[in-house]
Amino acid sequence: MPQGKIKRLVTDRGFGFIEGESGDLFFHHSEVQGKTLEELQEGDVVEYEIGEGRKGPCATSVRVSE
């Protein structure tokens, strides 16, 4: 499972971006597991899967790495 860091959070709009191994990926708050979007912080290390969104690749199943 790929890992990356949260690069930017836009909590009032419900999404963020992960700086990953293959570039930046968008993620929607509905894909965050185990925490809420508001509990995440920029710089947190996360694990995720890569899915296909309406505008291209995106992060799915996003969760903070232990």
Write up what this structure looks like:
- By secondary structure, the protein is an all-beta fold.
- It has a single domain, classed as Nucleic acid-binding proteins (OB fold (Dihydrolipoamide Acetyltransferase, E2P), Beta Barrel), CATH 2.40.50.140.
- 0% of the residues lie in helices and 58% in strands.
- The protein has no helices and five strands.
- The protein has strands spanning 3-10, 15-20, 23-28, 45-53, 56-64.
- The protein has a five-stranded antiparallel beta sheet, with no helix packed on it.
- It is globular.
- The mean pLDDT is 95.
Question: How do you describe this structure in short?
Answer:
The protein is mostly beta strands and 66 residues long. 0% of the residues lie in helices and 58% in strands.
The percent of residues in helical segments reads under 10%
β-sheet strand percentage: over 45%
Q: Termini distance?
A: 13 Å
Mean pLDDT: 95
CATH fold description = OB fold (Dihydrolipoamide Acetyltransferase, E2P)
- Characterize the overall form: globular
Quick one: biggest sheet?
A: 5 strands, antiparallel
User: What order do the helices and strands follow?
Assistant: EEEEE
Low-confidence stretches: none
Taken together, the total number of domains comes to: 1
State the secondary-structure class: mainly beta
| Strands in their spatial order, largest beta sheet | 3-2-1-4-5
- Please tally the helical runs, counting DSSP H or I stretches of 4 or more residues: 0
Query: Number of DSSP strands?
Result: 5
Name of the CATH architecture = Beta Barrel
Classified in CATH, the superfamily is Nucleic acid-binding proteins
Q: Determine Rg (CA atoms, Å).
A: 10 Å
**What's the CATH class label?**
Mainly Beta
